[in-house]
Design brief:
With about 250 residues, the protein is an alpha+beta fold. The protein has two domains: about 100 residues, no CATH class; about 120 residues, Substrate Binding Domain Of DNAk, Chain A, domain 1. The chain has seven helices and eight strands, in the order H-H-H-H-H-H-E-E-H-E-E-E-E-E-E. Strand 3 and strand 4 form a beta hairpin. The longest helix is centred in the middle third of the chain and has 17 residues.
Length: about 250
């Protein structure tokens, strides 16, 4: 009789040239989706470390991936990544990675990820336009020199920034803002209650300080921003990004 193996056969995938073919969900065959997920979470992206350490076998990586898919709670997702020994637990799990394991779960957050190329961008733009249409200026009687209202799409952890358009945002500004809700310098980071969803954001630029808007708020804070370039802006949601203002132009004010 054939006896059972004493230990399971574990595999350890790494980044390879074939991984380049798995950049978009819409171009990936169903039988290749698990391989695509492993490629994406094993590789470094935009200077960030891999989502899972190379000491973790593929079977456990896929298991953690399915656990991440099973919850929408971001703190729970970050806890799972910490348990896995991830160096990216602070960022959380990206929707464009998880979609390869649970597309039916991610489609509600990022509908454009189901498509590819032009069709994907069109779906993302249509989704952003629908969210923008729900937003209105909450302070319409007070006109500014320049102003804009748009849906602002939030990623893991929530929060948005107002920054000096001529300077780089400090890397730790959102980490510092998580302690007290708001931090300013050459950039202001404002933490929010929601994440992985859109909220309505209105920004107004005045020639002089406007009266405080207190109605409807329990607490109001005022901070200063040092702008050496004389321009302030709010990040726009670029193609393929998961956060930023959904307006067609990046709002910048002098």
């Amino acid at each position: 009789m054939v006896q059972p193996e004493a230990t399971p056969r574990l595999t350890f995938s790494g980044w390879e040239d074939a991984c380049m073919a798995y950049r978009e969900y819409g171009h990936t065959r169903p039988e290749d989706r698990e391989k695509a997920f492993l490629c994406r979470v094993r590789g470094a992206a935009l200077g960030r470390p891999p989502m899972f350490p190379d000491t973790l076998p593929d079977e456990q990586v896929l298991g953690y991936g399915r656990l991440l898919c099973a919850t929408s709670d971001q703190e729970r997702r970050r806890s799972l990544l910490r348990r896995a020994g991830s160096d990216r637990s602070g960022w959380g799990a990206a929707a464009d990675d998880l979609i390869f394991l649970c597309p039916e779960k991610i489609v509600a957050e990022r509908p454009g990820l189901l498509h590819s190329g032009i069709a994907g961008r069109a779906a993302e733009n249509e989704f952003a336009a629908e969210e923008n249409a729900r937003c209105a200026d909450p302070w319409p009687r007070v006109r500014a020199v320049r102003q804009g209202t748009a849906a602002y799409f939030l990623f893991e952890g929530g929060g948005y920034g107002v920054f000096d358009a001529g300077a780089e945002i400090a890397e730790d500004i959102f980490g510092a803002a998580s302690e007290d809700g708001i931090v300013a310098g050459s950039s202001a980071a404002v933490m929010t209650y929601g994440e992985n969803e859109a909220m309505c954001l209105t920004v107004k630029a005045f020639g002089s300080a406007p009266p405080p808007r207190l109605r409807g708020w329990d607490e109001v804070a005022e901070v200063g921003i040092i702008s050496r370039s004389g321009q302030l802006g709010v990040p726009r949601m670029e193609d393929g990004a998961e956060e930023g203002a959904g307006g067609r132009r990046s709002p910048t004010w002098r």
